[in-house]
Specification:
globular, 5 strands, Rossmann fold, about 15% strand, 5 helices, about 40% helix, alpha/beta, 5-stranded parallel sheet
Length: about 140
Amino acid sequence: MLIGIIGESCTGKSTLAERLKESLAAEVFTGKDYLRLAKNEAIARKLFEKKLLSAVCGENLIYVISEQEQLALLPQGAVRILMGADLETILDRFAQRMRGTLPPPVKSMLEKKHGCFDCIEHDYRIYNGEGIDKVCAALEENL
């Protein structure tokens, strides 16, 4: 099974991926982690695309996506989980990552990106962490 976990920064994507990694015995790729597959970026991308396609009906793989252009890598048949959170939650979580201080340019960037995935097609949606147990149970049941 191929699972795409999609969302903005600080919406819980990595937390969900870690939880599913254990229960589904899945390999996890985040962003451009696929570059480790080859020294050449184009070759690494092609190898990753093949790996994603074979995971649709094969071994469990989770791809954590936080950039729009990465959506194009998800093939048909992938389970898509949209992660979201209100802007205040995202700003607070990001500030915690930066030891309590959120520089104005970072805050502005987060505000501009907020909602950028809201219109994408998805199979499941988790907002502010609500429903995570239900989604995990549904995916585990589909094994």
